[in-house]
Amino acid sequence: MMEQKGELISFRPDIKVVDCTIRDGGLVNNFGFTDEFVKKLYETNVAAGVDYMEFGYKASKAQFDVNSFGKWKFCDEEDIRAIVGENNTDLKIAVMADVGRTDFRKDIIPKKDSVIDMIRIATYVSTIPAAVEMINYCHDMGYETTINIMAVSTAKEEDLKLALDILAKTPVDVIYLVDSYGSLYPEEIRRMSEAYLKIAEAAGKKAGIHAHNNQMLAFANTIEACTFGVSFLDATMSGMGRGAGNCFMELLLGFLRNPKYNIRPVFKFIETHMNKLKEEGNVWGCDVQYMITGQRNQHPRTAIAFTAEKRTDYLNFFQTIIED
Amino acid sequence: MMEQKGELISFRPDIKVVDCTIRDGGLVNNFGFTDEFVKKLYETNVAAGVDYMEFGYKASKAQFDVNSFGKWKFCDEEDIRAIVGENNTDLKIAVMADVGRTDFRKDIIPKKDSVIDMIRIATYVSTIPAAVEMINYCHDMGYETTINIMAVSTAKEEDLKLALDILAKTPVDVIYLVDSYGSLYPEEIRRMSEAYLKIAEAAGKKAGIHAHNNQMLAFANTIEACTFGVSFLDATMSGMGRGAGNCFMELLLGFLRNPKYNIRPVFKFIETHMNKLKEEGNVWGCDVQYMITGQRNQHPRTAIAFTAEKRTDYLNFFQTIIED
Questions:
Q1: Which region holds residue B234: left if phi is over 0, alpha if psi is between -120 and 50, else beta?
Q2: Which of A82, A216, A305, B314 could form a disulfide bond with B288, CB atoms 3.0-4.6 angstroms apart?
Q3: What is the CB neighbour count within 10 angstroms for residue A107?
Q4: What are the backbone angles phi and psi of residue B119, rounded to the nearest 5°?
Q5: pLDDT digits (tens, 9 = 90+) for B192-250
Q6: What pLDDT sits at residue A12?
Q7: Rounded distance, CA B153 to CA B177, Å?
Q8: What is the DSSP letter of B212?
Q9: Is the CB of A295 inside 8 Å of chain B's CB atoms?
Q10: Chain B contacts of A276, Cβ < 8 Å?
Q11: Is B250:B21 a contact under the CB 8 Å cutoff?
Q12: A186, A263, A291 member nearest B186 (Cβ)
């Protein structure tokens, strides 16, 4: 079994906390955040010592109607600048671009003209060649890059190994372990972290983790990966994110021992802004239907529909799921 | 670092699942469960293959007014029998008795006259001598016994070690690791499981875990302990329990691979009975105030009061807590 990288109390300057509230939380409310919310979140992240804030997607305007989504689905340069100005802070700005759903050659401009620092490229194992093309493009434009391989809990081990080997040869800075279905247990996270780290570190890269909370393990899996050497840690305020949501920022910052992080502004932000989002009818978080899709290692779309219909016939849902 | 006891997929016949819904959940609703609820829960546990069901406390009627609590605070023999009859099932019946809050010599009758199988003795490190007296008494009466050492996250390591050594010499069957404040992280659970198991196994005893969900780690800590050899696993329906609650039964049974467990009746019970309890105004579960007391390794009583007052000024609460 692999060794821990540091004990609980030790200081790990390599750790980077990434706030994904707007991006993954945007999947809950169709990116309909007010400018005030985004501005306050930005200020909170700066004050809390968070390392990166992901503003949303760079989605293709040819594929997605700009009138059907909030602006953070597209993350136009001027919209980000309206929040952060020149961003003269220690917080770096990230956006996500999905392979096949972005006009990256048109919409991702040279870094010298952008306030964005990092492009996070989301891919499946099956679309790695297209992802490599995007990595090379974004790297050449001057950005830091991450590759977020989604749904790895259903990927063949051999395919994943091959994908990691290919990615090791690219200029990507961070390789992310993404538990899209919230189906992985801590002991699996340990094994997978080991595999990711071995390949990433040999190539001078970092590893990251993006966890989902279907089985109430997002925080546990995040700190488990962290304990074993994964250093880019995704979290969201109140765990806001698609379906069961993500790792809670307030739990993660309470765990980390680096004095650069300050949890107080996070508590203030949650009481002022996150509770309001919930009162307005936005629903996310671990519920029985998400436990079921997580346990069965399935995409949460059926559980999201079940939630939207306000159903609670869990046993019927379970029977449907296992007969799929 | 210690080795895992079996991989995820392996079969562990030593595992015993203990349902604590009435006992720990009773701390939420003052033990005010209807007979119908308790009967259905009993039938659910039998159908689900759960190994033990804890009915409540054997509390002293001299210390606690029977008119101020539901009957499961006291667990009279006839009240249990009204639910289970002679309990001709594979499910065993447990009750808890707190050191110093029970008239055990009066209220715990010989096993041959009781439908109860196991007495769980709850103690602090400081009351170990009195606990040993109770262990000996209950063992001599013919019961299986567990010792649940509470609040170990604040105990001195030396005192805890001494306590475990003393307990190893008693006839107790199971020694429980209890994370009363929900403050322990998985890596601490691994270290403590190792310490408990080493002493328990050398004395021919089992180890158990009772986790709280303040930092959303109750399930993660339970399966972490399980993975490393702890075999008595406490859980409650919908995680119902004091404050932030406990490990969710529906998550635990989804994790375990032993085919004797059947999760379907649990889903049915939750949709029919647990959601109703919530609608009736019973409140438990992980919220920011519990994360804060968990992070600070404090008793949740301040967070419970904060919850009862329906407050959401988390930052004020945090400031008060850290200035204590």
A1: beta
A2: B314
A3: 17
A4: -105, 125
A5: 999 999 999 999 999 999 999 999 999 999 999 999 999 999 999 999 999 999 999 99
A6: 87
A7: 10
A8: B
A9: yes
A10: none
A11: no
A12: A186
Measuring CA to CA, which residue among A145, A126, A148 is closest to residue A135?
Answer: A145
CA neighbor of A13 nearest in space, from A256, A279, A177: A256
Tokens of B143: 């019961």
Closest CA to B184 of B158, B155, B204: B155
Q: By the 8 A CB rule, do A66 and A74 touch?
A: yes
Largest CA distance in chain A: 55
Tokens of A277: 């989002």
- Of B185, B216, B227, nearest to A216 by CB-CB distance is B216
Cα distances (angstroms) measured from residue A3 to each of A221, A225, B151: 16, 12, 29
Collect contacts of A59-66 with beta carbons under 8 A, ≥24 apart.
A59/A97, A59/A98, A59/A101, A59/A102, A60/A101, A60/A102, A60/A103, A60/A107, A61/A103, A61/A107, A62/A103, A63/A101, A64/A101
pLDDT in tens, B200-209: 999 999 999 9
Q: How many CA atoms lie within 13 A of A297 on its CB side?
A: 10
Contact list, B270 vs chain A (CB under 8 Å): 288, 314
Q: Alpha-carbon distance B198 to A39, whole Å? A: 53
Nearest chain A residue to B319 by CA distance is: A264
Q: Are the CB atoms for A256 and A17 separated by under 8 Å? A: yes
φ/ψ (deg, to 5) at A234 = -85, 140
CATH 3.20.20.70 residue ranges in chain B? 16-279
How far B286 CA sits from the closest chain A CA (Å)? 11
With CB atoms and an 8 Å threshold, state whether B314 touches A251: no
| Segment A273-290, tens digit of pLDDT | 999 999 999 999 999 999
Asked if A262 reaches chain B (Cβ–Cβ under 8 Å), the answer is: no
State residue A52 phi and psi, 5-degree precision. -135, 145
> What whole-number distance in Å separates Cα of residue B288 and Cα of residue A70?
28
Q: What is the pTM of this model?
A: 0.96
The nearest CA of chain B is from the CA of A71 a distance in Å of 30
Token pair listed for B260 = 């004797």
Q: Which of B251, B242, B250 is nearest to B286 (CA)?
A: B242
Tell me, yes or no, if A4 comes closer than 8 A to chain B by beta carbon. Answer: yes
Q: Does domain B16-279 have CATH number 3.10.450.50?
A: no
C-alpha–C-alpha distance, residues A246 and A225, integer Å: 15
Three-class SS state of A125: helix
Contact A270, A279 (CB under 8 A): no
For A70, phi and psi rounded to 5 degrees? -65, 165
The C-alpha angle B225, B228, B231, rounded to 5 degrees, equals: 65
Report the residue from B186, B275, B291 with minimal CB separation from A254.
B291
Q: Which residues of A touch B288 (CB under 8 A)?
A: 250, 267, 270-271
**B182 in Cβ contact with B216 (< 8 Å):** no
pLDDT string in tens for chain B (324-residue length) = 567 777 766 778 899 999 999 999 999 999 999 999 999 999 999 999 999 999 999 999 999 999 999 999 999 999 999 999 999 999 999 999 999 999 999 999 999 999 999 999 999 999 999 999 999 999 999 999 999 999 999 999 999 999 999 999 999 999 999 999 999 999 999 999 999 999 999 999 999 999 999 999 999 999 999 999 999 999 999 999 999 999 999 999 999 989 999 999 999 999 999 999 999 999 999 999 999 999 999 999 999 999 999 999 999 999 999 865
Residue appearing with tokens 């009240």: B79
Residues 137-196 of B with CB under 8 A from A: 185-188
Q: How far apart are CA B45 and CA B53, in angstroms?
A: 7
